[in-house]
Amino acid sequence: MLAAPGIARDDDTRYAVALLDAILGGSASSRLFQEIREQRGMAYSVYTFGSQYAETGQVGIYVGTREDNLDECLAVIARELEDVAAGRLRAGELDRAKENLEGRLLLSLESTSNRMSRLGKALVTDMELVSVEETLRRVRAVTEDDVAEAARALFTPTRLSAAGIGPRESRFRKAVTRLNPALAEAS
Prior knowledge:
Elements: E1 2-5, H1 14-24, H2 31-39, E2 43-52, E3 57-65, H3 70-85, H4 93-108, H5 112-124, H6 132-141, H7 144-154, E4 161-162, H8 169-176, H9 181-185
Antiparallel strand pairs: 1-3, 1-4, 2-3
């Protein structure tokens, strides 16, 4: 597991961050899922996640793999993070992420329970209730540069923390060094 501080729930970059999540690891068509699971068969589970709170948040990447695959999995993760942060999105990748996010939002609103939860969450957290139309407009307005900036801001290697469970701590420390040498020194 790799994690870093994220953004607050009222941060205007939340739409770019949501699309970054979709591109990196938020679906079966995401980069990490395709590269690590589908192309290389090195992990059954690989995904990104984010949580947003009143004044802060968290972003992270999870990969469940064998010890033998850890170094290569982390190399793929590092390469994909660097690629997105450099603004190298693939043709149509942002559009597909937008369609995915829009589709999930619209499908979730078909449930009365989800609609009421959305309203209740806005009320309890004192958040602006953004209309569905405005949410879709904000998602559609995100550019490739916005996604790259979010990747640079959130997934800079020096911001990452790492945690792992496995038989050899030394192997884990060696593998995480490729992302951030300071991680291998932390206890």
